[in-house]
Design brief:
Elements lengths: L9 E6 L6 E6 L4 E11 L2 E4 L5 E7 L2 E7 L15 E6 L3 E7 L11 E2 L3 E3 L5 E5 L4 E7 L5 E6 L22 E2 L13 E8 L1 H7 L8 H4 L4 H8 L4 E2 L10 E5 L2 E5 L5 H4 L17 H5 L4 H13 L2 E8 L8 H4 L3 E12 L5 E7 L19 H22 L3 E5 L4 E2 L14 E3 L9 E5 L5
Parallel strand pairs: 3-15, 18-19
Antiparallel strand pairs: 1-2, 3-4, 3-7, 5-6, 5-8, 6-9, 8-12, 10-11, 12-13, 13-14, 16-17, 17-18, 19-20, 20-21, 20-25, 22-25, 23-24
Length: 444
């Protein structure tokens, strides 16, 4: 389905009665469409930022501080396509910002939108706006046509021009024509490739605080306040890193290994001066870029399955991996621990390591090996964890799942007429040593 090409714009001459000055006012009744291919750096090369949930908000020249959710084309899923294209409907002059759409959020076209701000560790908002990935500046030309250029408001005062600690330079101005009035993406004005630098990912990824409604309304708000209030314990003991962060709350321990914050610690803080060398992020600020719903899911799972310990090596990060990590919806888990009752009510500590090679006993469907009580306990515990996560995917609480073992819903004993034989957990060499869970991103 495509729109019929409307009549060309018609300049209407009106007379200003107050001072008698005549002027041309452009009356533009046509919607135009633009697309920009968002890319990210991975292993030294620019790749498509595919499957990235995004939101377009706009203002007008008459009300530059009033932002509204922009109307999307009918075909827009609210995510970039496989090529990384973000599709923008242009309904007149103004600024159109392409923002990261946060997990669990829902928006209605035309609604008033408040640009969020990065939160301080105290929970209050800072004076620094969460940055868009890109802004499109649309103006009226003298002949009553519209033109656009890609730019960025640069509220953090970063260096322009490229590089992982900079933001892209502004693009050239392009004119819309009648060829760009169809809502089919191939007909949209092509604004080219746009590489999201590591620093831009950081500036566009919100630092959440303890006042966030998801935290305030959570059953696990005490633990979440420790994470988002930067009250975690630094790593101690043999083999620990000063950049490790440990949560201890209500009999549960979560170790955020230093690997989970490496990428963030290499980027600049949103604060103008955070007291760190070169103003780089701390591990605590880095963890606060992961959406509270992601952390809440982990805590809920630990509570429901009586898990006493979990270890994470990946959360929000701007420098490597899929867009799921880069936009705050994912977490990687390597180890879990619980206590189970055995014969004569004897208690056994059961630790599983999600590793295809190093811990084959943690495979939830392993067969053909000599059976032993310890192995049985490990396999059954791992199965409970995998079933719990897979069911959350069926409910669309979670999105894509990865892990050391390729598993279908049927293999996990989950009966679902629609997806029973389909893949619940994908696997590849990247996920040989951890489970990757991501919040559901299927809805715009």
């Amino acid at each position: 389905m495509t729109q019929q090409a409307p009549a060309p714009q018609v300049p209407v001459r009106v007379e200003n009665d107050r001072d008698g000055v005549a002027m041309n006012i452009c009356q533009i009744a046509t919607d135009y469409y633009a697309r920009i291919r968002l890319q990210m750096m991975s292993n030294g090369a620019a790749t498509s930022a595919s499957n990235l949930p995004y939101l377009v908000v706009r203002n007008t020249p008459q009300a530059p501080d009033a932002w509204r959710v922009a109307t999307r084309p009918y075909m827009d899923t609210g995510r970039t396509d496989t090529a990384g294209n973000a599709h923008v409907r242009v309904a007149g002059p103004g600024r159109y910002r392409v923002l990261i759409k946060e997990p669990t959020e829902r928006f209605v076209a035309g609604d008033v939108f408040t640009i969020p701000r990065h939160a301080l560790a105290t929970g209050t908002d800072s004076d620094r706006d969460v940055q868009p990935l890109v802004e499109l500046e649309v103006i009226e030309n003298a002949n009553c046509t519209l033109s656009v250029r890609r730019t960025h408001p640069n509220g953090m005062q970063r260096t322009r021009g490229g590089g992982n600690d900079q933001i892209p330079a502004d693009g050239a101005r392009n004119n819309f024509t009648q060829a760009h009035t169809s809502d089919e993406i191939r007909s949209a004005l092509d604004l080219g490739n746009y590489v999201i630098s590591y620093q831009l990912w950081a500036d566009a990824s919100r630092a959440y605080g303890t006042h966030h409604p998801r935290i305030q309304n959570s059953t696990f708000r005490a633990a979440l306040r420790m994470i988002y209030g930067e009250q975690l314990t630094a790593g101690t003991g043999a083999g620990a890193s000063l950049h490790d962060r440990v949560l201890n709350s209500d009999g549960k321990e979560v170790q955020f290994n230093n690997q989970s914050t490496t990428g963030g610690r290499g980027r600049l803080s949103f604060r103008q001066d955070n007291g760190q060398p070169d103003n780089r992020m701390t591990a605590d600020e880095t963890l606060r870029r992961t959406h509270p719903a992601t952390m809440e899911f982990l805590l809920q799972m630990m509570d429901d399955l009586d898990i006493t310990y979990a270890r994470s090596t990946g959360a929000w990060r701007p420098h490597i991996g899929s867009t799921r990590h880069r936009y705050a919806s994912a977490i990687d888990l390597t180890h879990m621990r619980t206590t189970v009752n055995g014969a004569n009510n004897q208690q056994h500590t059961v630790t599983i390591h999600f590793h295809r090679v190093s811990s084959t006993n943690s495979n939830p469907i392993a067969t053909g090996q000599p059976e032993a009580a310890e192995r049985t306990r490990m396999r059954e515990f791992s199965r409970r964890v995998h079933v719990y996560i897979a069911n959350a995917r069926l409910r669309e609480t979670l999105g894509w799942l990865g892990g050391p073992w390729n598993l279908t819903y049927n293999q996990l004993g989950i009966v679902d007429q629609e997806r029973g034989n389909t893949e619940a957990f994908a696997t590849d060499n990247t996920h040989i040593h951890h489970i990757h869970i991501s919040m559901g991103t299927d809805q715009p």
